[in-house]
Write a structure and sequence with these properties.
Helix content is 30%, strand content 29%. The protein is α+β, with helices and mostly antiparallel strands. The strands form five sheets. It has an eight-stranded antiparallel sheet, with helices on one face.
Length: 297
């Protein structure tokens, strides 16, 4: 897929750095050395894949596969193998979380706006939307999906991490250089640079102030879920954007942020999100599920 626009490419010491925007996030590719021509080829491939996934799965685009499902008004829709894989993964996440993680919960954004403001919805606002939430209400038999009229799906909880893994896979097919793909803080590294490790900054909030933890990463993926950027602050309470689909509210006692290391960004992302939904039990849950993790409270 050709790039939609030129991707800025620059030298950063021994590295090549490409920066662009996709999925409402700043995106970055780092390449350890090589020629400008090779770096350009890899950068264009990574950006094109990010934009392809955004175009296909964004709920904000009228021409996306997701919006086609949401606009079907109860009619059955046949999906392609890639989307079927994402739906199967979403179903697994729903089961693993006992229903707390649910790709039909995007409708709750009609009540919540996580813009750093102070508006918290009423209990009545949430209760009115909950009948439109629930994976169990969907008729899904691969490759056919039937979504009840009035319901929606939203792949925002898994789409960006999926895009990171896809982009890194395409980049690795083009070069043997060490690579790091970073989409909005969710990232995957193919291997260590010549300097020994990638230095990754993780944003969090402590005592109401933004902080940054630096992690040395050689290979594998990191993903973070938290309230550093998307939140509502009301009466001294900070409400993060990760909602429990069963209640329509953020989990009580959730960490400020959770960062998870895993083999893939998709895996790291879902583990971080599911840990947030565990509330005060997040650390104990992560201890049983993840090899590397960091919590901020």
């Amino acid at each position: 897929m050709p790039v939609e626009q030129p991707v800025p490419l620059e030298r950063a010491g021994p590295l090549w750095r490409a920066r662009f925007r996709a999925m409402a996030s700043p995106c970055e590719l780092l390449i350890d050395g090589g020629t400008a021509r090779d770096a350009r080829s890899v950068a264009d491939a990574v950006a094109a894949e990010a934009w392809r996934i955004e175009k296909r799965y964004s709920r904000y685009r009228d021409d996306s596969a997701v919006q086609r499902i949401n606009a079907a008004e109860g009619r059955a829709v046949t999906v392609d193998p890639e989307l079927a894989t994402l739906l199967e993964f979403a179903a697994q996440c729903h089961a693993l979380s006992d229903g707390a993680f649910d790709i039909t919960s995007g409708v709750l954004r009609r009540a919540w706006t996580f813009d750093g403001g102070d508006r918290v919805p009423s209990r009545a606002d949430i209760e009115a939307l909950l009948p439109r939430v629930g994976w169990h209400r969907i008729d899904w038999h691969d490759p056919v999906l039937r979504l009840p009229a009035g319901m929606q799906i939203d792949l925002g909880g898994i789409g960006k991490e999926f895009a990171v893994d896809r982009a890194l896979g395409l980049a690795r097919a083009l070069t043997g250089r060490a690579l790091l793909v970073n989409f909005g803080g969710d990232l995957h590294a193919s291997g260590p640079p010549d300097s020994g490790a990638w230095q990754v900054g993780i944003e969090a909030v402590q005592a109401g102030r933004p902080t940054t933890r630096t992690i040395a990463l050689q290979r594998g993926a990191l993903a973070t879920s938290g309230d550093a950027r998307r939140y509502v602050q009301h009466d001294g309470i900070r409400y993060g954007h990760v909602l429990d689909a069963r209640t329509g509210w953020p989990a009580d006692g959730a960490p400020r942020s959770v960062t998870v290391a895993a083999d893939t960004c998709t895996q790291a992302g879902v583990l971080a999100t599911l840990a947030m939904l565990q509330g005060p039990k997040a650390e104990a849950w992560l201890e049983a599920q993840a090899q590397g993790w960091w919590c901020e409270r």
